[in-house]
Amino acid sequence: MAYLHHLTIVVPPGGTDAVVAFYAEVLGFARIPKKSKSEHVTGAWLQLTPTVQLHLSESDLPPHPSVHFALVVDDLAAVLDKLAARGACWHTQSDVLGSPRGFTIDPAGNRVELIQAADTLPAAAG
């Protein structure tokens, strides 16, 4: 058995605070303390779920244009409102397994796929 513990994305030097604000304000992530061995690395850690974290690592390397991660959200419409309020882009994609989805870009240029949770979709009119 395997499960995801964390993923790391690159942010430009000095860009951590803007990226932390994006994930906190748009998606409700909480900043958490970095472990002692990682304190020398510039960046931040965020808690996504009780068991999954997002690590931000400052680097001069640009993000790869096709690399992304996908998040399932309970209320995609509310997230889209928050993205619009921040002036963030949104690119609608075809549904996946019956759920609306699309891509945005965080302030560091990382692609993030957002998918509406299937169990929160409105029931079809019958």
UniProtKB/TrEMBL annotation:
It comes from the Bacteria. Residues 3-117 form the VOC domain. Signal peptide: none annotated. Gene3D superfamilies: 2,3-Dihydroxybiphenyl 1,2-Dioxygenase, domain 1. InterPro entries: Glyas_Bleomycin-R_OHBP_Dase, Glyas_Fos-R_dOase_dom, VOC_core. Pfam families: Glyoxalase. This is VOC family protein.
